[in-house]
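Annotated sample (chain length 387).
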Amino acid sequence: MRTYLDHNATTQVRPNAVAAMTEVMARVGNPSSVHADGQGALARVELARRVVGKALRARPEDIIFTSGGTEALNLALHAAISAGGVDRIIVTALEHEAVAATARASGLPVETWPVNADGVVEISWLADRLASCSGDYGRPVLAMMLASNETGTIQPVQEAATLVRDAGGLTVVDAIQAVGKIDVDFAGLGCDYLAVSAHKFGGPQGVGALLAACNAPMARHHHGGGQEKGRRAGTLNVAGIVGLATALEEAVSSLDDFASLAIQRDKMAVAIRAVAPQMIEIGARASRLPNTLGMSLPGWPGATQVMALDLDGVAISAGSACSSGSSKGSKVGTALGLPEDASQGFVRVSLGWNSKPDDADAFIKAWTAAYARAALPSKQMPEEAVG
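Output written by the structure step:
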């Protein structure tokens, strides 16, 4: 039996979401059609919109359904640039390529907000940067994660959004890894845009949402019909949208259960450090998602660890699934300034809504056995090198 510990890449679809989608797919109707069948489909979409709004404290009319998190983030940045009149982009050093690559492709100046040794940005940097550039570089847009997909570290989004708003700018929040794992309050965060992806909290792959504040600039990223009030063209994925809403409602109602996964996360960290004291646990001193353990073992490439555990029936990752296959060290390791061998040695272990205590035990057993077999130059490091 395999043990799946890569839930930050994608997690199991919840049975209730499967049932809801199956029921929708047994019916017929395009939600853009005016006949009864079409209006029935539209009613399911609008009910889902209200469910999402309640779960994330957003107005239903401010929710735009998309094909996933990447499209939602692209739509937000496109809107900020083409309709919001921004002149420069600020991204954190941890951003997913859905943000980082879009920013690079924009043609606008891009500044990178560094993280500290715990993998968290410091508000003082942003305050100083906005103050020093006031009036000189035009309107900024800040794009930042609420929680890191690789280490789970939670970022000070509310404080950052306040600073950017006071500077006349806009804020795009990637909440894709946070939604369904911690409480996310769109209104309370004070951002202009917030991206969501269903398959991170037990919905289907290929569907997401962009939440846009009522006064946030909007512009189509691609053209077609008038769906989503003209903000996003394309026939709506009714079954996927219903699955997203069903999974989100269930995830938000069980946040306390999800929080208890921190017990397993910490158990794994303690066990690994007992046999490999040189292990660096990223973000251990910061607020983190309860399910995510990001760790690095200098001298043992993450890709090798992933393969060794996979052969033993345990699935983990060496970073974001969207950047897998890269020969470079982890983006997190580079951002934290870790030595190359430590950056190369990064792996992510992520629990999910359906994880069992036995999963942590299986990981500990498999990792410890693989480590014992590994021919590493040294299995100890000076104490000062341990994070």
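Annotation: The chain has a mean pLDDT of 92.
Annotation: The domain at 15-253 is CATH 3.40.640.10 (Aspartate Aminotransferase; domain 2).
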